Automatic annotation (TrEMBL), chain A:
It is a peripheral membrane protein. Keywords: ATP-binding, Cell inner membrane, Cell membrane, Membrane, Nucleotide-binding, Translocase, Transport. Its main location: membrane. PANTHER family: ATPASE AAA-TYPE CORE DOMAIN-CONTAINING PROTEIN (PTHR43297:SF14), OLIGOPEPTIDE TRANSPORT ATP-BINDING PROTEIN APPD (PTHR43297). Belongs to the ABC transporter superfamily. This is Peptide/nickel transport system ATP-binding protein. SUPFAM superfamilies: P-loop containing nucleoside triphosphate hydrolases (SSF52540). Gene3D superfamilies: P-loop containing nucleotide triphosphate hydrolases. CDD domains: ABC_NikE_OppD_transporters. It comes from Roseibium denhamense.
From TrEMBL, chain B:
Its main location: membrane. It is a multi-pass membrane protein. Belongs to the binding-protein-dependent transport system permease family. The chain crosses the membrane at residues 29-50, 57-79, 91-114, 156-178, 198-226, 277-298, 324-346. This is Peptide/nickel transport system permease protein. Residues 152-345 form the ABC transmembrane type-1 domain. It comes from Roseibium denhamense. PANTHER family: OLIGOPEPTIDE TRANSPORT SYSTEM PERMEASE PROTEIN APPC, PEPTIDE ABC TRANSPORTER PERMEASE PROTEIN.
Amino acid sequence: MVPKKDVLLEIKDLRIEGYSDEKWVEIVHGVDLTLHKGEVLGLIGESGAGKSTIGLASMGFARDGCRISGGSIEFDGMELTTTPESALRALRGSRIAYVAQSAAASFNPSHKIIDQHTEAPIQYRIQKRVEAQEDAMQLYERLRLPNPDEIGFRYPHQVSGGQLQRAMTAMAMACRPDLIIFDEPTTALDVTTQIEVLAAIRDIVDQFNTAAIYITHDLAVVAQMADTIKVLLKGEEVEEAPTAQMLDSPKEDYTKSLWAVRSFKRPQKQRPTGADAIPIISVQGIDAAYGQTKVLDDVSFDVYPGMTVAVVGESGSGKSTTARCITGLLPPTKGQILFNGEALPPRYQDRSKEQLRQAQMIYQMADTALNPKIRICDIIGRPAQFYSGLHGTALKSRVDELLDLIELDPAKFYNRYPPELSGGQKQRVGIARALAADPKFIICDEVTSALDQLVAEGILKLLDRLQQEFNLAYMFITHDLATVRSIADEVVVMQRGKVVEQGPKDEMFTPPHHPYTDLLLSSVPEMDPNWLTTLLDERGTDAIGEAANV
Amino acid sequence: MSTFVIAYYALLIGGSCLAAYFKKRELFLLIFSLTLVSFVMGIIGGVGALRFVTIAAGILALAAGTSYAFREFLIIIAPEGVAKELRTAPLTAAFGMFVIFTYAIAGIFAPVIAPFGEAEIISSAFAPADENMLLGADQLGRDMFSRIIYGARNSVGLALVATTLAFVMGAFAGLMAATKGGWFDQFMGRFADVIMSVPSLVFALLMLSIFGTNLIVIVIVVAVIYSPRVFRLTRAVAGNVVVMDYIEAAKLRGEGDWYLIRKEILPNSTAPLIAEFGLEFCFVFLLIAGLSFLGLGIQPPTADWGSMVRENATLISFGELTPLIPAAAIALLTVAVNFVVDWMLFRSSGLKEV
C-alpha cells in the first residue's frame, strides 16, 4: 500500500452533468481516480467517453454547459469542488497545468512564445522576467527544441506543429507544477513528429517527478507514457491496471475489443498482368503548383481495377494535392492523368458527366462533407438522380438499397439530417453518396483519421466488402500506417511532393527501405511499453533532432 | 410623509427582503435597485417623482406581463418544432412579436378599425380630442387616430415591399458572386461599392426629383439603395459555405450554379439573412419616413407616419404632443423589430453577451 501522504490527487465518485435539450444529463457517472506524486496515469476511451471532461475536472474546472454535480476532488489535501473560483485560479497554471490537443489553437498568435511562457511565473511572482526567460530557454533546451535561446522570441506561426507542442509542454512546466494534464497532445501530429513530442514529454515528467494525467485514444501511445492505464466508456470506468498488466491481460470484453482493433487485415491482391490489363487511373508525371509554390514534382503511379493503392506521407507531402489533381480541382502544370487508357481533361469543368461519375471521392471530415440542411435520402439520392435520371419509387428503392449496403436501417435514417448522426454513421453516408454514382474509382482522403478506432475498423471492413462486391479501385490517402497494413495492396510513399518509393505492400513492409520510408515505419508506435525507449536508444538523441528537422 | 410614500417604501423593501430570502437573485437585484433609485428620486423630486417611478414601473411590468402571456399563447398554438424555438425567446423578443402582431392587425383591418376614412375631413383644424376623435384632429381636421391606423398599412406595407425587393436583388447577386467567384465577384463587389459610396438620402432625393414621386419609383430607388448591404452580407455568408467539402462534392458531381445556390448554399445561409431582413426593414422604414417628412415620399392625402409628423409639426410649439404620436409609432415598430432580430441573431450565430 502506498502511504496516504503520497497521494496527490484523489477523485471519488465524480459525477458531471451536461446541459442539453433544456435539461441536465449526467455524462460522467461516478468515476474514482487516485494519482500519486510522480505517477503518470493514462486515460483512454472513445470520443464521448468523458476523458477530457474528467481531465478538466481534476483542475476543478467544468466547461461551459457542464457542471460537477457530485463526488469529491481532493488535490493535495484541498477539496476542489468547494474551493472558491479565485483560489482555484491561483492553483491552475502554478500547481496544475494543462496541455491542450492543438497547440496551434491554444497559443495566442499575436504574442511571442516566450512572453506567453513567462506570463504565469511573473503573474504568480515566482520569478522575475529575466529569470523566467532564462528558465524558459533551459526548458526549451531540455525539450530539444532547435536554437533554444532564440526560438522563444518567435511567434507561434513561425515554428512547426511539433515544436509548438513541445513549447507548450515547456510552458506547462514553467511554474514546476505538481500535476500536468495532457489532453491528446500528439493526436494532431504526424508519426515522425509525434515521437519527438512523446520523448520530450516523458523526459521532462521524469526529470521533475511531475505527476501527469495523459488523455488519448491511441493505445500504443499511452503504453509508452503511462504507469497506470484507466479505460473509460460512456462516462464510466471499465477497468484500471498497471500498464504492463493491462496490455498483457485485459479483463473486460470492451478492453479486449479495443486491443484487437488493429488486427483487421485482408489478403493482398496482385496487380493483373497481361497486355489487356490497363490501369483504371494512371497518373503520369504530374507537376502541380499553388501560385508560384511547386507542390508536386513528377508524381506517377497506377491504380488497377479492384485494387487499393495507399498513398502515405506526412502532412504537406502532397497526398491530398495529388487527389485534387486527379479530381480536376487543381489542373496539373505538367503531365497527364489517364482514365482507362484515355486522357482526362485537366479541369473538372471540362470533363463529361460520365467521366465525373466514374471517379468519386470520400472526405476526411464527414461533418463538412455532408450538407447539414439536406436529408440523408436527398444526399444519397441526388447522385443517383443526377447521373442515372432515377426518380419516384425507383429512386427511393435505390436509396434504400444503398442504405442497406452501408448497414444503416433505411426506415430509421431515410428522413434524418446529418447533424443527428454519429461520426461513423456520417462517414457511411459519405460512402453511400460516392457509391450512388456507381463509380469505378474512389478516392478516400483520410476517411478514418477523424474516427475512433472501433468505428474506423467498421468503416475499413465496409470499404473492403464494397470493393469485392463492385470491383472498386481505391486510392487511399492516409498517414496511418496501421490502416495501410490492413487494407492496402500497393503503397506509394510521398515526401515533399515527390514519390520516394512505391510497390506492393509486402515489399514495402520488408527491408530494405528508402531512408524516409524507414523513418516513417519505425515511428509508428507499437503496443510494447518499451518501444519508445528501444527506438530512442537505436536512433540516439541526435536522430531525434534530425527527425524534427525533416 | 404621506401614506403613499410609506406604503411605497414598505412594499419595495418587503419585496426585496422576500426575494433575498427565497434566493431569487435576479428578482432581488431588480427590486432592490428600484428601491435605491426611488430613494434618490424621492429626495430630489419628492412625491411626484415617486409617483412617476411607480407608473413607469407599472407600465414596464404590464408590458412584461403582456409579452410573457403572448409568448405562452404562441407556444400553445404553434406546432411542436416552432414551439420549441419560441421557448428560447426572451421577453423582449416576445414584446417585439406582440407589437408587430398589433401593427399587422392594424394594417390589415385598417378600414374596419378606423372610425373615419384617411382623407375624410370631420372637424376643424387641430381640434382637441373628444369622444369622437381619440387623438384629436390634424391640420385639415382629419381624425388623427384613423390616419395612424391607415398609416400602418401604407408606411409599413411600402417598407415591406421595398425591403423584399432589395433582398431579392441583393441576395441573388451575393449568392451568384460567391458561387462564380473570379471577375464576376469583383465586378459585383465594385458595383456595390459605387452605390454605397453615394449618401443614401441624397441619392434617394436625387432619383426622386428626376423620376418623380410615385410609389413604384420610391420602391425601386429604396431597393437599389439597400441591396448592396444585402449583397455584401450574403456574399460573406455564402463565401463561408462555398468552401465546405459538400460544395466541392457537388461541383465535382457536375452540378450547375443554380442547383448549388438553391439546394446547397441557400439553406445554410438563411438564418443570418432573416435576421438581416429585420434590420434592413428598420432602415428602409426610417428612410421612407424621412423621405415622406421631406415631402418626397408618399404623397397626400394618403396617410403616412413620416408626413404626419411634418404636417403637425407646428403643434409642438404649443406644447402639444400630437406630432410625436406618429413618430412614436415609427420608433416603437423599429424597436420591436430589433428586439425580434436580436433574438434571431443570437440563435443563428451563437452571438453571446459576455
